Automatic annotation (TrEMBL):
Interval of the full protein contained in this chain: 86 to 313 of 313
Organism: Cylindrotheca closterium
Name of the protein in its database record: Adenylate kinase active site lid domain-containing protein
GO molecular function per UniProt: AMP kinase activity; ATP binding
Family recorded in the similarity comment: Belongs to the adenylate kinase family.
Stretches assigned to the Adenylate kinase active site lid domain: 127-174
Keyword Iron: no
Keywords from the UniProt entry: Kinase, Nucleotide-binding, Transferase
Keyword ATP-binding in annotation: no
Length: 228
């Protein structure tokens, strides 16, 4: 079971990934989360990635391919995994195919979350995340239980805390309108072409991600149940 959760920034990869993880018992591997952890820890990779990520650019193929190569060799990936944010270029897709072929495996499903660009700015600029778990919230669509608004109906930052741990939430440095424009450019220019690479294998399932989260989840479930 090797799944790719595919879609633009704000499509819902990080929202639905953990639910698929719970359901199938295989880990969600988010290159974005792994890179953000490297930035926080100040590792060599983190130092190289920090400015690129903040501006909404793509980190080099070598770095992310290396991260995934190491990660999928770990014990918990033995029965499969869910990729979130990888592959993002044709070179990454080909490197992934090669790694998997060496183990006699291949990508078994690509779930494509389809959303028009026009709705993504609101999703991205309203997102708050719990850093250590990667859980995401939204001021309008998925507010934390603790959220309080000020007189102008803006959330009061100190009240933005994680439902499970009570720890503070934060906003991502790349969740600005300017960085989103760049992220969308690389999504359409470099990432979307990967779909044509997987389509001949009959593994791509499109899901309408421009609806409420429950509706999206229902379609994801249906796409997973449908035979490849
Ligand atoms: P990454 O972390 O992968 O970011 P991304 O692809 O831009 O995707 P997002 O995390 O922004 O979106 P999501 O789909 O997870 O949305 P979410 O579910 O949170 O990558 C970050 C950066 O790292 C890249 O720009 C790049 O620099 C680098 N990087 C990572 N991987 C790389 C790679 N392979 N190669 C090179 N560089 C790489 O939802 C968003 C918000 O909307 C949330 O607040 C959520 O609550 C809300 N929401 C979700 N669904 C709905 C809905 N149906 N209705 C209303 N609101 C919703
Ligand atoms: Zn994400």
């Amino acid at each position: 079971n090797i799944m790719i959760l595919f879609g633009p920034p704000g499509a819902g990869k990080g929202t639905h990934g953990p639910k698929i993880e719970d359901m199938l018992g295989i880990p969600q591997l988010s290159t974005g989360d792994m890179l953000r952890a490297a930035v926080s820890a100040g590792t060599e990779v983190g130092k190289k990635a920090e400015a690129i990520m903040k501006a909404g650019g793509l980190v080099s193929d070598d770095i992310v391919i290396g991260i995934i190569r190491d990660r999928i060799q770990e014990e918990d990936c033995k029965f499969g995994f869910i990729l979130d944010g990888f592959p993002r270029t044709l070179a990454q897709a080909k490197a992934l195919d090669k790694m998997l072929a060496d183990e006699g495996a291949c990508v078994t499903k690509v779930v494509e979350l389809e959303v028009p660009d026009s709705v993504l700015e609101e999703r991205i600029t309203g997102r708050w995340i719990h850093k250590s778990s990667g859980r995401s919230y939204h001021v309008k669509y998925a507010p934390p239980k603790s959220m309080k608004l000020d007189a102008s109906l803006k959330p009061i930052p100190e009240t933005m805390t994680d439902d499970a741990t009570g720890e503070p939430l934060m906003q991502r440095k790349d969740d600005t309108a300017a960085a989103l424009t760049k992220r969308l450019q690389s999504y359409h220019g470099e990432t979307v072409p990967i779909l044509a690479h997987y389509k001949p294998n009959g593994v791509v399932r499109a899901v309408n991600a421009n609806q409420g989260m429950d509706g999206v989840w229902g379609e994801i479930l249906a796409s997973l149940q449908r035979k490849a």
